[in-house]
Amino acid sequence: MPPSSSSITESKGETEEEALYLVIQRISSGRLLVDEDNDTWINLHNQPGLVNYVAFGRRKVGSRSIHTNGGKNTLTSSSSEEEEGKSSSSAATPVSPLTKDRMMKAAQSLLTCKLATASGWHADHSDAESLVTLSSTTMASLVTIPQASLVGKCIPGDKYMKYHHQLDKDRSEELYGQWVTILHHEALKLINPKKYDDKNKRGMEKYLRRAEETLIDPKEMFKTGVYEGKYSAFNEGGFPLLLADGSDIPKSQVKKLTKIFNAQERKWKAAEKEGKDSNNKGHHINEDSTEVISKNHVREERRPSATTVDSEIIVDEGDLGRLHMANGTFG
Asked: How far apart are CA 54 and CA 149, in angstroms?
């Protein structure tokens, strides 16, 4: 079936930015090869929905606009270098990263825009439904496939595709993983909000507990938490000297504890420096209270934000009701 209509437009600017490129296609059923080596497939029988082909590249802000309609792509560009097939980027050009907020908005649009249909496509598109609505009445599917050629370019006369604007493989793979995760999170938020809230709360609690560990003074680290009661003697810096029963600590364990202690000491010093530097920038702080306020500032600055814990949310099979999500592997 032909790809659904979509558009990607860029605003004016000087720098380059990472960009998410999507081509959406309606499906009524199909099979997805997820592991070529082991010949593993996912069957999508009688599961109408969408396939989103995704790629990640660089674009000069304000340089071009892409419109997709019925499988016909039109590319307009204000860059004469691109028309000649030359790379419009350079190593010195700053590249703004693709933010999580932009990917969340793209995922929300993909899930809520009326692009899907359970049957034949009416001429006036009157039967179009969003994927979220479709999955509320029937089994539906959303398939994600990495497709590097979306950022390729072949100008008349060229013998090969050019990938001047493609991100490197490691960065593309990282963003692809984020995109798949965000799609699952946004789908869960729209289809099963109570489940999302519960999982988000548990993820926040786990994240906060882990983050609080970075606020422990190295001198106290081996005397509290998971280490409490394991050691009976410590040096002036808080490093353990004897096990709880008074025996020597094995050399292999001393080596491991030394790495843990040194890492915690670096985190602690960095946090203290960050707090003192921020306080020294001004706010008319009394010199006698600088140390106390710095420590409080460190704790406040190091406390994690609620917006960073989505990676703790695990979307399990069944959380999304009738919506089946499948992902191609990045290779």
From this structure: 9
Judged by DSSP in three states, 118 sits in: coil
Question: Helix crossing, 169-191 with 100-112: angle to 10°?
Answer: 50
Please report which helix (H) or strand (E) contains residue 280, including its range. Answer: none
Spell out the residues 6+ positions from residue 118 whose beta carbon is closer than 8 angstroms to its own: 48, 127, 129, 134, 137, 138
DSSP 226: G
Q: Reduce the DSSP state of residue 78 to 3 states and report it.
A: coil
Neighbour-count burial for 218-245, b at 16+ CB within 10 Å, e otherwise: bbebbbeeeeeeebeeeeeebbbeeeee
Say what the alpha-carbon torsion angle 205, 208, 213, 215 is, to the nearest 10 degrees: -150
C-alpha span between 143 and 51 (Å, rounded): 5
To which residue do tokens 């692009």 refer?
A: 115
Query: Which fold would CATH assign to domain 6-191?
Result: D-tyrosyl-trna(Tyr) Deacylase; Chain: A; (3.50.80)
**Which secondary-structure segment (H or E) carries 20?**
strand 16-27
Tokens of 18: 């990472």
User: Angle 108-113-117 (CA atoms, 0-180°, nearest 5)?
Assistant: 130
* The pLDDT value given to residue 234: 94
Local mean pLDDT, 10-residue blocks, the chain (331 residues)? 40 72 86 76 79 90 48 34 41 76 94 84 74 89 88 82 82 92 92 86 69 74 86 93 93 90 83 60 41 37 33 67 84 67
Break the chain into its structural domains and give their ranges: 6-191, 209-308
The pLDDT, as a whole number, for residue 4 is 43
Q: Measuring CA to CA, which residue among 215, 208, 213, 209 is closest to residue 271?
A: 215
Tell me how far apart the alpha carbons of residues 163 and 153 are, in angstroms, rounded to a whole number: 7
Q: Is the pTM of this model over 0.85?
A: no
3-state secondary structure of 106: helix
Say if CB 98 and CB 174 are below 8 A apart. no
